[in-house]
Amino acid sequence: CMNAGRPVPATWLAPGPRRWLSSLPVNTVVLFVPQQEAWVVERMGKFHRILEPGLNFLIPLLDRIRYVQSLKEIVISVPEQSAVTLDNVTLQIDGVLYLRIMDPYKASYGVEDPEYAVTQLAQTTMRSELGKLSLDRVFRERETLNTCIVDAINQASDYWGIRCLRYEIKDIHVPPRVQESMQMQVEAERRKRATVLESEGTRESAINVAEGQKQAQILASEAQKAEQINKAAGEANAISAKAKAKSEAINLLAAALSQQNGSSAASLSVAEQYVSAFSNLAKDSNTILLPSNAGDVTSMVAQVSPRPVLAAGRAVPGSGSRCVRQANVG
Q: Is 44 helix (H, G, I), strand (E, B) or coil?
């Protein structure tokens, strides 16, 4: 638009500020708004309405598309910056910011440059949060750090119609000297864990060996106990069996003696034992006791009554026995 010989100021013809897109559409009366975009329309320099996706009609000359806002999720790379931790270590850190415009009106008129504003807010918030953490906690609590930065950005960006969805730290660069110290610390920690694991393995091995020896001793003692119990039970059974057999033999002998010719059979048995005993005289010792009538077998058989009692190698008076000592018999 030109007046007679008088140029219009350039600011009147300059396009409005751009929001996320490279150019602004021209008012062609009939407009088609793409999906996930919001076109802010001004009528005679004042906000009029926001065009929705689809078919829209505008009045030429009066209506003007002032801003175009994308409603998609926007990714902004936060430049690398320096930050000092709680233990005075300088870090070089950068990140990625994920945004979405929730209110196109506030995003258009609430702040001059939303991208620049959010980026600066992310950087200042990151420096502030890193100053509260030590170097070790920075690496351990990256997730907590990201959450704190997102909360701080959302508190300020609510007036801009922008919502920060998430913030991710990309790279953390530490000074070379600090990196060497961290590497040495990691190696020392690994050696410590290896030593601890080795000692624990040795302890477990010693415990297992001691437990095995303990169980072996317990089992051996139980086996010995069972053996002694079985042996005692066997001896008791043997004694009982012998006693029973002897009792039965005595009963049979008594029954046999009570029969006819029982005394004659008993005399014959005594005579046989007498002759057998004389054949073994002086084989085990050089001192023997003989009766006075050793050659009279009939008289010995006739004496079925108990024998005279001997005491200390001497015959009791009246027993009719004599003591004979041989120097070397057999």
A: coil
Torsion of CA 126, 127, 133, 136, to 10 degrees: 80
Residues 6+ apart with CB under 8 A from 257: 263, 266
By the 8 A CB rule, do 87 and 135 touch?
Answer: yes
- Give the three-state DSSP class for 37: strand
Please report how many Cα atoms fall inside a 13 Å half-sphere around the Cα of residue 100, on the Cβ side.
Answer: 7
Amino acid at 31: L
pLDDT tens string 44-62: 989 999 998 899 888 888 9
Phi-psi region of 321 (alpha: psi -120 to 50; beta: other; left: phi over 0): beta
Cβ neighbours of 13 (radius 10 Å): 9
What the block records as the tokens of 3 is: 């007046």
Q: What is the pTM of this model?
A: 0.49
CA distances from 274 to 44, 174, 256, 298 (A): 159, 116, 21, 11
Q: Which residues of the chain have pLDDT under 50?
A: 1-22, 304-330
Measure the CA–CA gap between 2 and 148, rounded to whole angstroms. 54
Using an 8 Å Cβ cutoff, are 93 and 146 in contact? no
pLDDT, residue 229, reads: 92
Q: What is the pLDDT of residues 32-41, one digit of tens each?
A: 989 988 999 9
Q: Which single residue is written with the structure tokens 């609510």?
A: 158
- 20 near 39, Cβ under 8 Å? no
